[in-house]
Amino acid sequence: MTSAQNRPQLLSGNNKFDYRMKKLLGFFLVILMSGCSATAQSYKNHKVSRGETVESIAKQYDVSVDDILKLNPEARNGVRKNSMLVIPSKSLKTTSNTDVTFINHKVKRKETLYGIAKKYGISQEDILKYNENVAKEGLKKGDRIAIPQFNKKPKETTETVETNTKDEKDNEETSFEIYKVKAKETKWGIAHSYGLTIDELEDINPEIKDGLQIGQEIKLPIRSKKPKVASTENYVFYDVKPKQTMYSLTRKLNVTEEELVLLNPALKDGLKAGMVLKLPLAKTEEENIDVVDAVIVDKFNFLENANPENVSNIVLMLPFKLNEINMDSISQTKEKLQKDRLLSYATDFYTGSLMALDSIKSLGFSVNVKVIDNGGSASTTRSAIYDNDFSDVHAVIGPFLDGNVNIVASELKSDGIPVISPLTSKKVDHRNVYQSIPDKELLEGKMLEFMKKNGQDKNVIIIADKDKTAIKAKLQSIFPNHKMFNPEEGNYIKPTLILPHLREDVVNWVILESDELNLIANATSVLNSYAAKEKYKIVLLTTNKDDSYDNSDNIYHSHLANLSFHYPSIDKPSSLNNKFVKKYEAEYGISPSRIATRGFDVTFDVLVRLLYDQNLAKSVRTGIETSYVENKFDYRKKLLGGFFNEGVYIVKYDGLEIKEAK
């Protein structure tokens, strides 16, 4: 190995991960139509077991090998364990003397499968059998579809009772009962429980298009077993969109296929556009899924639009300082890790990055990663650039220090290689720099926006020390009817003087702007004493929460909790039940630090953006905000310079937990 003084070390050689993309299997049902007659065919899915072949599977189901290959072209090259095959079902074959003619129907705006089937006096299944695109992609305005008209009612001979079940379902679809809407029930919950789409439910009940009312009476199909309607108290809902697959849905909702089917048994019969799925409310909160009025919101998703052929090359440039570590001494290495803050950050960030790489691998995508030790200093950072080939690199994550980010960005600018600054908010004005940490001005601006939006009906009291004239002026312009309270000489407030400013009939917003430890400790203590009496509702806010709040023995978290303290933050603490936290603890035996979590979030975000397009700037042009375990990324392009992240949280104390303030 080359001397560390002359060349930056690479962990385990290049530490190059070549993650092979897993083959994404899709299923297409082939419907054969001939002249004016057709034969309907039913299908089932088969999960391949170890040692099985196409021939053995064909024999098992009493079908020919050609029958299987017609429905599963990829099986011509053999089958793998756990892959899924579509199998034609011999037991459900219809008799050959069934004559069918067709009517050409043009789909109109807001027409549904249920409505069209009802109009022509046939079942929805009849339409799907003869219209493959509708089965796969759903109905679209302007589509022309074939409507089967049976000259003689088909009599199906089967080896099972499935015909009776279908007849029973058809009868249920045409008979209705009156249902009274209960509290916390929604159109989505009712549609899910009765196996309807939202369009079908609204076709039956046009009066509910603008919403449901508690106690409202609506019509629902009679079911042999009365469904229990899923309540918004425990569940949220999602409308399946055309072209979505089980694979894309499980990635979008962050659940396994088994979990989704268990919650939504109708999926056993296949995924269809318009289906309403339910998901536990707690799951969406844990996975940070956007929900509005108990309905999961569709957002553009880089993973759903990923190109599996985008195998990117990234560099992690971290200050491991291997030339300063005696690898032969465990005790000296431990001591170095404990004393050297930059090295500690590097190791924590790296563990999070490895988790992100593993997550990308588990999704079936590939990425090549090169890990370079830049040593932390300017000279070793320059060496890292000069001694390594960056010609095929799509992005560099790191270094940590703003001076070193400047060096790397300057050297790689001419090649247009993006450099992501992961841990510093100090501006580096190169067009290829991505500042992933929002600066203080951005944090302040986002907090002022929050205050303006939510504080107009509050009793606003401003406490600011003499050095905060600029922010004081901004607050005064937002709240012209505020009450200004000036601290006493020596930076403290007298309880008897602030009391007259508090009101019992409205929420009191006390905005505290100070870097003085004495004033912060005194103000939080005084305000807490009044809030504890339950006579006054007091909320404490600031535009700039510095380290004083966390590093002083005189500022109590219990006081901040009683005051529901609100402030802007670049991140939000994750739940201990979070999937990332659990995986990290299983891998490393400890909970992830804030830096480790940031390592995961920054790395995963860069990787999914590169999967969407290997030109990182194109992901920014989509205007999409991404969020992961604790951090979110909403990049914007500077007029002169690179990119900056506007992803800021407004958080609050909820008891002794810190949660996002919505």
TrEMBL record:
Compositional bias per record (Basic and acidic residues), positions renumbered to this chain: 153-169
Region (Disordered): 153-172
Xref: Pfam families: LysM (PF01476)
Residue ranges of every copy of the LysM domain listed in the record: 44-94, 103-147, 177-220
Listed InterPro entries: LysM, LysM_dom_sf, Peripla_BP_I
GO MF: lytic endotransglycosylase activity
SUPFAM superfamilies the UniProt entry points to: LysM domain, Periplasmic binding protein-like I
Signal peptide: none
PANTHER family: LYSM DOMAIN-CONTAINING GPI-ANCHORED PROTEIN 2, MEMBRANE-BOUND LYTIC MUREIN TRANSGLYCOSYLASE D
Protein's name according to its UniProt entry: Amino acid/amide ABC transporter substrate-binding protein (HAAT family)
